[in-house]
Design brief:
- The chain is α+β, with helices and mostly antiparallel strands.
- It folds into 3 domains: 67 residues, Uridine Diphospho-n-acetylenolpyruvylglucosamine Reductase, domain 2 (2-Layer Sandwich), CATH 3.30.43.10; 119 residues, Uridine Diphospho-n-acetylenolpyruvylglucosamine Reductase, domain 3; 84 residues, Alpha-Beta Complex (Uridine Diphospho-n-acetylenolpyruvylglucosamine Reductase, domain 1), CATH 3.90.78.
- Helix content is 25%, strand content 26%.
- It is built from 7 helices and 16 strands.
- The protein is globular, with a radius of gyration of 19 Å.
- It binds flavin-adenine dinucleotide.
- Flavin-adenine dinucleotide binds next to strand 3, helix 4 and strand 12.
- Flavin-adenine dinucleotide (FAD) binds next to strand 3, helix 4 and strand 12.
Length: 299
Amino acid sequence: MSLKIEEKISLAPLTSWLVGGVADFFCLPTSVGELKEALKFADAKSLPITVLGGGSNVLISDLGIRGLTIGLKNFRDLKAAEVDGQLEIRCLSGASKSDLLRVFLKYQLEPALFLAGIPGDVGGGIVMNAGVAENFKPREFCEIVAEFEVLKPDFSEKKYSNKDVQWSYRHSRGWEPGIITWVTLRWPLHKDPSILEKVRSANKGRLSKQPLDMPSCGSVFINPPGHKAAQLIDSCGLKGFSIGGAQVSMKHANFIVNTGSATAEQLWSVIQHVKQTVAREKNVELTTEVVLLGDWPKD
Ligand SMILES: Cc1cc2nc3c(=O)[nH]c(=O)nc-3n(C[C@H](O)[C@H](O)[C@H](O)COP(=O)(O)OP(=O)(O)OC[C@H]3O[C@@H](n4cnc5c(N)ncnc54)[C@H](O)[C@@H]3O)c2cc1C
């Protein structure tokens, strides 16, 4: 086996919240061949598998993750070409959104604008149908993905075209279970020479509204229909509410930040407190956008 599989690896540094325990087993495949080796290793030992992309939308338990965690930060080949009046990008799912951003900027194309606001990898972007609130065109992953391949738990590979997938607000369905491998993105080659200026101005706006200098996972809650989660939380007076090192951001109420020493349990307790308070005071049920990974105590 050429793939290195390590034991007891701390996962906190691989997440944007900088919290979480250790992975029993951990590997960083660089190719689909190595990814298959990882699946076979887990299969031989009957280990559960967890996939970690850019780690920017996950809350990993302080108790860590049992089984094999597959990190995708080295799974990132990317090629771009002009095909029939379109820019076609083919990449492995661990390519970062900033890798994509650089390519779209080079070709002066509009997807750069929404990508500039979202951390993490291409695979995580598909799983979460990541997107921005602004009325940009495009503004969500489902608009730029043409097709992708999935390595299934039985080691088979299956291709999904955009229309095979059920895309919704911060979700994609119909391709699971499995690990997204190769992704093809396409966008018409209609240049916008002012795109770099637009990206800079959008970044400036974001910096003024979001606590980007503190560890977070971005927005914790999905906007409920007809509401903005941040406004609901703010109007309950929850900005600044904290448990240990986990705090509802003073700058943006839908961000919960790690002020330095937060544990996953403290972050989860703040999330629960916010949910309960908004349900009680506003009669609105908030749903988390962030994905829980690992061993969580049953309640
Ligand atoms: C400061 C900040 C700002 C943010 N702003 C936005 C925003 O504006 N809009 C937005 O939509 N999101 C935003 N986010 C959240 C996050 O960046 C996105 O949801 C992002 O798409 C997650 O990608 P990731 O690679 O980090 O996924 P991860 O957090 O690593 O994983 C998310 C889920 O996808 C699964 N997964 C990841 N890769 C694969 C794969 N290849 N195959 C199968 N499953 C996989 C994981 O198991 C997990 O369940 C923000 C986060 C931060 C920290």
